[in-house]
Write a structure and sequence with these properties.
Growth Hormone, Chain: A, 2 domains, 11 helices, 75% helix, globular
Amino acid sequence: MVGPAAVILCAATVSPGVVAWGVGAAVVAGGIGIALLDPPLRAEDEADAGTAGRPPRREWLGVGMLAVLTMAFGTTTLLSGVDLAVVAMLEEAGQVSWAAVVVVVLGVTSVAGGLIYGAVSWSLPTWLLLGLLGLVTIPARLARDWPWLCVAVVGTGFLAAPTLSAVTDAVSRLAPAGVRGEATGLQSSAQNAGFALGSPVVGVAIDVSVPAGGFAAAGLAGLAAALTGCLLSRCCPTPRPPSSSRRESARGEDATHVQ
């Protein structure tokens, strides 16, 4: 969330070449840090799941997982397109120097949305979050200068982190512990593909219409992915982890059967 604003600010004050090297160094440092920390991919009650062997892909890489990967792709396609649309709209208005401020608003509201969503005890379906993200993105095309654009992107920022979090949660629920690393890699690939294709797709929409059309294209891409994910999810609902009360009930039933 901090990256885009920091890159724009540094590129304007230092040089794009230095920023490119800095970003590359940050990626390497982050990879080394994760390797050293070696965070677990399984919960404590799943510690022995890997000893049972890797389940066949056909058992977990089904319609439900494809739905989540589609929504992962759609989310980053939308977010990548929004970044381009912000720059294009402000360039048309002669206010491109304010792009960093708009991106900062996006980042701050996204962090706030992620913290609030993580604090609540309930969750929303991934397709619903992505659909709402697409809906609140489209009206940003009505903004005409940077102050109004800051207001218009608040909804997009607020729903960005919760949607990405919901995608990750859905992948974790659908993937057995023994293949969670592979599933997470597929999720990362889908999201990277969305980042790579979002800007060209929205760029074409901007070229054939107006800069404000970039927000409409990004929002519609998110809505299309949400609709696809919803239809596929109906065929294979995402499993939810049992609540503590259900676990206690299951334990009681197991004890009864043993007796």
